[in-house]
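Reopening this one. Same input as before:
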Amino acid sequence: MAKYSLFLGCYIPSMQPFAEAALRKISPDLNIELLDIVGATCCPVPEIVRLVDDEAWITIAARNLALADSMSHDILVLCNGCWETLYEAREKLLHDIKLRNKVNSNLKLLGKKFTGKAEVKHYTQVLVEDVGLDALRRNIKVDLKNLKVAVHPGCKLYKSDGEKLAKYLRDIVEALGVQVVEYGIERVCCGYPLMLASVDKAIHERTKWKLDAIKDANADMIVVACPACYDQLEKAQLALRDEGLEYNLPVLHLTELIALAFGYKAGEIGLDLHGISCMPVIEKLEGVK
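Same output, byte for byte:
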C-alpha cells in the first residue's frame, strides 16, 4: 500500500466529518494507507494569518510540514486552502535559504526542523497521478449515470501548475460515470474569501450567482473538493431561504461521491449530516420515484 501523511486541516474534523469518513472508507480500496499527523494544527488559513503576519504564517505552516517530514511520507491534503498554504510555504522554504534558516531557528524552540522531504499533494493529485483513474473505475459498484453533477473546483485549484488540479477534479468526476453539467461560470469563486469583508456581498454577488447558474443548468447536485467551498455553497442556500429562494442543491465532497460509486451507503459516510438534504440524490440512485 502507498502510505501518506494525512493533513485534515481544521474545517473537516470540526464541521464536515463526512468528507473524512468517506476518504477513510475508499482509501483501502485504492491501496492507500493514511497515517495521521499527530499534533498538526490549522495550516494556517492564508486569507487571515498570512495577511496579518507573514512570518507567523510560514512558521506555523513549516511546523506542520516538519511533522510530516519526520514521518517520511508525502502529505495528502483534503482541503484546497490547506494545500495552498502548505504547498506555497514548502516552495518558499526550499528556494529561500535565508528564510529557511530563520524559520528553522524558530522551529528549533519547538524541537522541530523543516527539511522539505515530504511533498505536498492535494488528494485529486494523489488519485490521478499516484492511484490512477483506471483504479477508480475498477472499484465502481454503483451506476451513477443518472446523476447530473455541477463541478465546482474552487479558485485555489486554478493556482496549481497548468491548473492541473482543477482538471484532475473534473477528470475524476467524469471517471465515476456521472453526467457533468456545464453551467458557464465554473471558474468563479464560491464567495468564501469575500465573506471576511462582507457577508451580504459574498452571498448575493458570488454564491447566488453560482447557485442560479447551476440550478438553471438542471444539476442534481454540486461536487466540491474544498471544505470552505462546501461551507459557502451550503450555508448560502440556507440563508437565501429566508428570502424565499429555494435551491435545494445538495453539496457533496468529491470523497463522498467516490464512496457512493464504490457502493458505500449514505449512513456509512454521513450524508444524513448535511445541511441541505441529500435524499434526492440517494433516491435517484436507488430508483425511487
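So the earlier flakiness isn't reproducible anymore. For the record, The mean pLDDT is 95.
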